[in-house]
Amino acid sequence: MTDPAVERDAAESASAFSHPPVEPDASAAYGEHPDQVVDFYAPRGGATGPVPLVVVLHGGAWRAPYDRGHVTPLADFLARRGFAVANVEYRRGSSLPHQGGGAPVAGRWPETFDDVAAAMDALPRLAAGALPQADVRRMVVTGHSAGGHLALWAAARHVLPEGSPWRLPAPPLLRGVVALAPIADFAVAEELGVCGGASAQLLGGERYWDERLPCADPAALLPTGIATAVVQGREDIVVPEQVAEAYVAAAAKAGELVGLTLLDGVGHFPLIDPAADACAVVAEEISQLAW
């Protein structure tokens, strides 16, 4: 007998991935590797004045088969809402199955983090050249799933442990973060087997867990002082709501209020699907921080 939750997830995934890729208006490299690139989408409707810049970090369990292409419809959707958009690519795990078989390895240490940090640092300069309408003083970073993790992490670099190569001396100039079904608490994600143990793979394996977790886990990097909202589907079987709830609880324990919007009847993929009502909720959460 087919599980209704699995059927829902498959249908939602098929809808989200049914949209054709949308070509960017401009692209710029932030490094020499082919994956070190940012695609820019100009606000639709002929806006000439400064508009907020939304930085999109795609998901896909930090694994190579999933690149920024699948969120180009989301980038276009946000551009049609009047935002300037930067869709960031970064180095991910090997596309070859890991030793012993199974899914491709999740992420690279330290390259995945190197790239997100470098891209965020380069964005003001790159946007000025590629997308003059973008107001980098009104920048919101958003990300889905593994990209939601990276969005939260990018906003927390100033609270990384001393000596971390990615640590910033002051909070990043962000209006806020909107994390979509983020892998936001690694311990809970591993307990639930999220994405086949991708969190541990991202850190390089279980033997590095204790050493690297304080530099990578958003639930350990609190409080940030950056306005943060989490949007989560209650029917999500890919990254269950317990992960988001654990992050919000960790923030509260650290003295920080994180907004949590739980959407009934919604799974993992409608949050990035322009055809889904949930995507409009995401745009509204971004608007509340950006404008």
From TrEMBL:
Keywords annotated in UniProt: Hydrolase
UniProt domain BD-FAE-like: residue ranges: 39-242
UniProt region (Disordered), positions on chain: 1-29
Residue ranges, compositional bias (Basic and acidic residues): 1-11
Gene3D superfamilies linked to this entry: alpha/beta hydrolase (3.40.50.1820)
Protein name, entry field: Lipase
Organism for this UniProt entry: Streptomyces cirratus
